[in-house]
Design brief:
By secondary structure, the protein is an alpha/beta fold. It is built from 9 helices and 8 strands. The longest helix has 15 residues.
Amino acid sequence: MNIVLIGPPGIGKGTAAVKLSKKLNIPHIATGDMLRENVANKTELGIKAKSLMDKGALVPDDLVIGMIKERLQRDDCKNGFILDGFPRTINQAEEIAKVVKTDRVVNIQASDDVIVDRLSKRKVCEQCGFTYHLEYIKPNREGICDKCSGMLYQREDDKPEAVKERLKVYKEKTEPLINYYKEKGLIVAVDGSGTPEEEFELVLKAVS
């Protein structure tokens, strides 16, 4: 099954996608992770993307579409995949439809206040990149990664002002996707304001 998870930043798409990937044994493809990997490796794409990501703006379509199209052609996607954070625009959805068919779209929803509060509590390890949450995934030692003892920090795009800008961009660019997929009969809405466990159960039910 080819699944797309959409929803505002911080809604928990990545957490749900990781669990869903294990449950269904299909790859979880996260554009955010792919972009951050390029930024860390200082590739041409990463250098172009970094300034935009720091401001909470979208990376240009041509860069992201090319990256995703290449990924979806790999052998591990033959039995399905979970796209997390892509498509973000109708243009992206139309471009991907040229190479793969989407079977189900899950729209995870929550209020802006919930999202700003949730992201303000997210911390990332500067060495291994593991993401913690001060409410749901706490490190054993404050400010220290359990996995590699790296220092934890707050990403620029997780700070409240950047989150508000990301939500503004989401509403302008990505929310039109809801009607796009609704017209195709592919979309199911779920409540993302609960715990990660509650959200995953709703997502799993939506794709079953």
